Amino acid sequence: MKLATLRPLLAIIFLQQIAFSATEVAEMKLQAAVRDVLAVAKAAPDSATLIQNIRPVLEKSLSFDAMTRRAIGPGWRQFSSEEQKSANQLFTTLIIRSYGKKFVPGEEPVITFKPASEPAPGRVDVPTSLVYQGSQYEVTYRLEEKEDWRVTDVIVEGVSLVANYRSQLDAQFKKGGSAEVINSLKKSVDRPK
Questions:
Q1: Quick one: which H or E segment has residue 128?
Q2: pTM above 0.70, yes or no
Q3: Within a 10 A sphere around the Cβ of 45, how many other Cβ atoms?
Q4: For every one of its 193 residues, what pLDDT tens digit does the chain have, with 9 covering 90 and above?
Q5: Would you call 38 exposed, middle or buried from its count of C-beta atoms within 10 A (0-12, 13-18, 19+)?
Q6: Sign of CA dihedral 38, 61, 72, 184
Q7: I need a surface site. Which of 13, 123, 144, 153 has the fewest CB within 10 A?
């Protein structure tokens, strides 16, 4: 195909890409991530494999840096760069393991995506209804553009994952600073699965 023939086609593709609203881009990214997670969960022969295989999918779709920083709260600025790195790694492992434990390999939830909203510029909330093992849950995924439209919080039945951890980790920080937070995260990660 000649370049002259390709130019109009490339122009149409470019215009289609910029025609999507922020909400639509965030929704498409979330739906792709959910499909990837469900494919891993369906293919996993056991829970340990599921947790291992789901990690790269979640690391691509969730902003663990933002989640860790927000879960720790204002005390985050007092962490050294090494402590921040350690806290982020531990928090990531804890969330992935907790998330992975929610799935039974081979079983798929039924997820209904509801209309997304943009409560602030650069932020999109995508509510969903999830039916899994006979129970229904309302789950909202919060995505942020500055995080390349990755998930920065998950709200399950009105409870924010980040806020829930923040209440725990903030208390640890007030008790013993960054060392106490890291120690608490290590204990949580080291608990038997």
A1: strand 123-132
A2: yes
A3: 9
A4: 555 555 665 555 555 555 678 889 999 999 999 999 889 888 888 888 888 999 999 999 999 999 999 999 999 999 999 999 999 999 999 999 888 888 777 778 899 999 999 999 999 999 999 998 888 999 999 999 998 899 999 999 999 999 999 999 999 999 999 999 999 999 999 986 6
A5: middle
A6: positive
A7: 13
In whole angstroms, give the CA distance from residue 80 to residue 38. 37
Give the side-chain half-sphere CA count within 13 A for 9: 6
Q: Which residues contact 19 (CB under 8 A, 6 or more apart)?
A: none
Helix (H) or strand (E) holding 51: helix 47-61
Closest CA to 74 of 177, 189, 180, 183: 177
Both structure tokens of 105: 């390999």
Q: Domains, the chain, ranges and CATH?
A: 3-190 (3.10.450.710)
> 131 forms bridges with which residues in the sheet?
110, 136
Count the residues in the chain: 193
Look at strands 150-156 and 135-144 and give their pairing: antiparallel
